[in-house]
Amino acid sequence: METPEMIPVAEFCAIHQIEGGFIDSLQSVGLIEVTMVEDHPFIPAVQLLRLEQLVRMHFDLDINLEGMDAILHLLDRVQNMQAEIRLLKNRLRLYETE
Amino acid sequence: MEYIDYYKVLGIEKGAGEADIKNAYRKLARKYHPDLNPNDKEANKKFQQINEANEVLSDPEKRKKYDQYGKDWKHAEEFEKARASQGNQQDFGSFDFSGSGDGGSGDFSSFFESLFGRSGGEPRGRRGAFRGQDYNAELKLTLADAYHTHQQTFTIGGKSIRITVQAGVENGQVIKLKGHGAPGANGGPNGDLYITFVIEDQPPLKREGNDLYTTTELDLYTAVLGGEITLDTLGGKIKLKVKPETQNGSKIRLKGKGFPVYKKEGEFGDLFVTYTVKIPTNLTDKQRALFQELAAS
User: Fold this and answer.
1) Is A21 part of any domain?
2) How close, in Å, is residue B296 to chain A by CA atoms?
3) Is A62 on the interface with B (CB under 8 A)?
4) Is the ipTM here above 0.85?
5) Taking the CB of residue A14, how many other CB atoms lie within 10 A of it?
6) From the list A17, A62, A90, which residue is nearest B208 (CB)?
7) Tens-of-pLDDT digits for all 297 residues of chain B?
8) Is B35 close to A56, i.e. CB distance below 8 A?
9) A13: which chain B residues are within 8 Å (Cβ-Cβ)?
């Protein structure tokens, strides 16, 4: 089954039982992008995972918009560092004695 | 199976009120939530415990049963029977916590399941549709396995999954199989399956990125006079010309004879070969005399 490239905001909100205003807030601070198609807002499918993550952070963990913004920056750094550690560990194996 | 002190898990007193439980849970969830701790199995495990404790203590009915039967959970079978008769098989949580990936349910401890049944009861909370939990699994490959594009079949959560492993996959690399985690509830999407590749070196071959490193022995005469040797590589045997007067520890680079570049068919890294020159032992008298002659010349 192919994943649709754009997901209607209304459908996403209905499934997650959240207000459309939350998506507007995320868009206003630049945390997600919303595209208008024939006057209806859509979310690009590539952002779905991030959006679901933001929904969990806000509604389940009580983290506000500014906090989420900071966390996403830090998570990016953590993931970059994890990738670097992986690379360095693999390189280190070259010099380890049997 | 051991008794789990859910109050201790959340760090609250037995008489804690609803607000205390909520606060304690949120505080710990913010610390251990899988979204905030990517690739951290310990945090995910801890989060699962916190989630389970919250599931019990924030539900007055479950809390009452737990307080009444908790320490004596072996006599609480009637609850399980009652629960089973409801035929409810829904996930309770709204988090996509990491599963064990070992094919078990992963959601609850055995203690919880013995007290409340496998499903844990009705889902609660903000949303009706719940995403299924994510599974994490490790797939061990030899260097030779990772050298070729091939298929692997394994079982996760009772389902048989076949994946194509692309040549050049790296040690520690994680791939995501969308929708292959635990099923969602109430129309929610399935969780995802994360597979981490664990690739072991295959001595004397070692890998760094797309390059391979190996060592090979040269007898003294080939090192001094030059010659031809055969080298075993992952791509098969290759013939190598050895230059005269090759030094011990010298290194050569064989372009394009290393590891395949991930998802770039026909592209390969390089193979670095280090020569170790083997000094002959148990010399005959004649050989010793010849060496002495050489030394004096």
Assistant:
1) yes
2) 39
3) yes
4) no
5) 13
6) A90
7) 678 889 999 999 998 999 999 999 989 988 998 888 877 878 888 888 898 899 889 989 888 888 887 666 555 555 555 555 444 333 333 333 333 333 333 456 667 766 676 555 544 445 455 667 777 888 999 999 999 999 988 887 777 888 999 999 999 888 888 888 877 766 667 778 888 899 988 888 999 889 999 999 999 999 999 999 999 999 899 999 999 999 999 999 999 999 999 999 889 999 999 999 999 999 999 999 999 999 998
8) yes
9) none
Does residue A1 sit within a domain?
no
Pick the CATH number of B132-200 from 1.10.10.10, 2.60.40.1230, 2.60.260.20, 3.40.50.720: 2.60.260.20
Of B29, B95, B206, the CB nearest to A94: B206
A62 in any annotated domain: yes
Q: Given B29, B172, B201, which is nearest A61 (Cβ)?
A: B29
A18, closest residue in chain B (CA to CA): B127
